């Protein structure tokens, strides 16, 4: 249980080179896809950002941020410009949620969410740091268009992966004893 209990989110600014190379990314994804998937729908796919693509995407985000809020401060615009510049690899987990007579969208969303978490765990298992983020860019229709998302797709998470520059601090976790109750049959 030690690796599971040691999992931490590493802020993007604390992620640097080296990041996973392509074969290592594929290995991470092999583990990440081993999630519950009712009906074997595979309601997810991946989109990766590396190198200059991260910076180009950041420039688009900065411009879009200014479009969305012409009064945005320069600090807000700069945050959007550099969002993808810190970690050497960002993987967008794209959920696919078209009509399905048997498997509700909520279950398919849960599967895609599990992929995000499994990717975090896989990255940490290989010595990388990672964090799962969304933010406005996960919900913006213009960003969805740039990403080539179909009408039935949406971003479930942006997973930033790299080598931690420092040990991520532990944060307070809930006590499961306070969250657990037992259902009484009578």
Please render the helix and strand layout as text:
Layout: H1 2-5, E1 15-16, H2 22-32, E2 44-50, H3 51-68, H4 74-82, E3 89-96, H5 105-125, E4 129-133, H6 141-146, E5 153-164, H7 176-179
Antiparallel strand pairs: 1-5, 2-3, 3-5, 4-5
Helix pairs in contact: 2-5, 3-4
Short description:
The protein is α+β, with helices and mostly antiparallel strands and 186 residues long. It is 39% helix and 18% strand.
Structural description of this entry:
By secondary structure, the protein is an alpha+beta fold. It is built from 7 helices and 5 strands. Strands 1, 2, 3, 4 and 5 form a 5-stranded antiparallel sheet that branches. Helix 2 crosses helix 5 and helix 3 packs antiparallel against helix 4. The longest helix has 21 residues. It is globular, with a radius of gyration of 18 Å. The protein starts with a helix and ends in a 7-residue tail after the last helix. The model has no long low-confidence stretch (mean pLDDT 96).
Strand content: 15-25%
Could you tell me the radius of gyration in angstroms?
18 Å
H/E order of the elements?
Answer: HEHEHHEHEHEH
Number of helices: 7
Coarse morphology: globular
Distance between the termini: 35 Å
Could you say which structural class the secondary elements and strand pairing correspond to? alpha+beta
Q: What helical percentage do the residues reach?
A: 25-40%
- Provide mean pLDDT, rounded: 96
Unreliable stretches covering 5 or more consecutive residues: none
Q: Describe the biggest sheet?
A: 5 strands, antiparallel
Counting DSSP E segments of at least 2 residues, the number of strands comes to 5
Cofactor: FMN
Protein name: Putative NAD(P)H nitroreductase
EC number: 1.-.-.-
Family: Belongs to the nitroreductase family.
């Amino acid at each position: 249980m030690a690796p599971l209990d040691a999992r931490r989110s590493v802020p993007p600014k604390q992620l640097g080179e080296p990041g996973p190379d392509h074969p290592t990314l594929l290995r991470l994804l092999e583990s990440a896809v081993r999630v519950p998937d009712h009906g074997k729908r595979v309601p997810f796919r991946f989109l990766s950002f590396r190198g200059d693509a991260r910076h180009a995407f950041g420039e688009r985000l900065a411009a879009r941020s200014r479009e969305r809020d012409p009064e945005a401060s320069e600090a807000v615009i700069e945050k959007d410009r550099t969002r993808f510049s810190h970690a050497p690899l960002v993987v967008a987990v794209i959920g696919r949620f078209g009509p399905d007579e048997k498997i509700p969208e909520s279950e398919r969303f849960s599967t895609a969410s599990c992929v995000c978490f499994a990717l975090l765990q896989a990255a940490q298992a290989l010595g990388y740091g990672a964090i799962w983020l969304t933010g406005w860019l996960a919900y913006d229709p213009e960003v969805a268009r740039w990403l080539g998302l179909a009408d039935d797709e949406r971003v479930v998470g942006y997973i930033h992966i790299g080598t931690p520059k420092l040990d991520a601090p532990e944060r307070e976790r809930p006590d499961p004893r306070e969250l657990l109750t037992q259902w009484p049959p009578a």
